[in-house]
Amino acid sequence: MKSLFPALSFKLVIALLITSTLSACGFHLRSAYLVPEEISEISVTSFDPYSKLTRDVESQLRMNDVRITAPSENIVNLHLISENISTRTLSLYQNSSAAEKEILYTAKARMVIPEIGEKTFSTSVNRNYLDNPQTALAKSTEKELLQDEMRAQAASQIIRQMARLRAELQETKPAVSDDTARN
């Protein structure tokens, strides 16, 4: 029985050490992207309302409990301005055909907040892939899958950029003085 306590206390000390280290460094488990509470409903307009990017952004908003409504003067509007996909060659085969390529996906969005103003966001995602001319069909399918993955990541980044609006929204809230609160 005496040998059980030192092992138990050693494990307890290690657990407390790990817990205090993690809490001291500011580590937090990631949950929602912290879309400001003031943005409980939003209208989404887009250069193409049926595009994959628009669907991905709307899905991300719903996951963050933001209700999507029709555009109105007193509703926050997220306007997806554009998306662009470009490629460049990174390396060549001996016969001068492209061996490795980079795909760059760029999306732009504008957030219009009534009585506050507007902010424009830009996000870009890049991926590299090998381009083997002998497997052209498989590579075109891989390229499409990469582009879809990049659109989904860009949608997540747009939502994260909305989280930066929290400070600006809190600055513009009318301050309630102590005299007003007592009355």
From TrEMBL:
<dbReference type="GO" id="GO:0043165">
    <property type="term" value="P:Gram-negative-bacterium-type cell outer membrane assembly"/>
</dbReference>
<dbReference type="GO" id="GO:0015920">
    <property type="term" value="P:lipopolysaccharide transport"/>
</dbReference>
<dbReference type="Pfam" id="PF04390">
    <property type="entry name" value="LptE"/>
</dbReference>
<keyword id="KW-0472">Membrane</keyword>
<keyword id="KW-0564">Palmitate</keyword>
<comment type="similarity">
    <text>Belongs to the LptE lipoprotein family.</text>
</comment>
<dbReference type="GO" id="GO:0009279">
    <property type="term" value="C:cell outer membrane"/>
</dbReference>
<dbReference type="GO" id="GO:0001530">
    <property type="term" value="F:lipopolysaccharide binding"/>
</dbReference>
<keyword id="KW-0732">Signal</keyword>
<comment type="function">
    <text>Together with LptD, is involved in the assembly of lipopolysaccharide (LPS) at the surface of the outer membrane. Required for the proper assembly of LptD. Binds LPS and may serve as the LPS recognition site at the outer membrane.</text>
</comment>
<comment type="subunit">
    <text>Component of the lipopolysaccharide transport and assembly complex. Interacts with LptD.</text>
</comment>
<dbReference type="GO" id="GO:1990351">
    <property type="term" value="C:transporter complex"/>
</dbReference>
<keyword id="KW-0449">Lipoprotein</keyword>
<keyword id="KW-0998">Cell outer membrane</keyword>
<dbReference type="InterPro" id="IPR007485">
    <property type="entry name" value="LPS_assembly_LptE"/>
</dbReference>
<protein>
    <recommendedName>
        <fullName>LPS-assembly lipoprotein LptE</fullName>
    </recommendedName>
</protein>
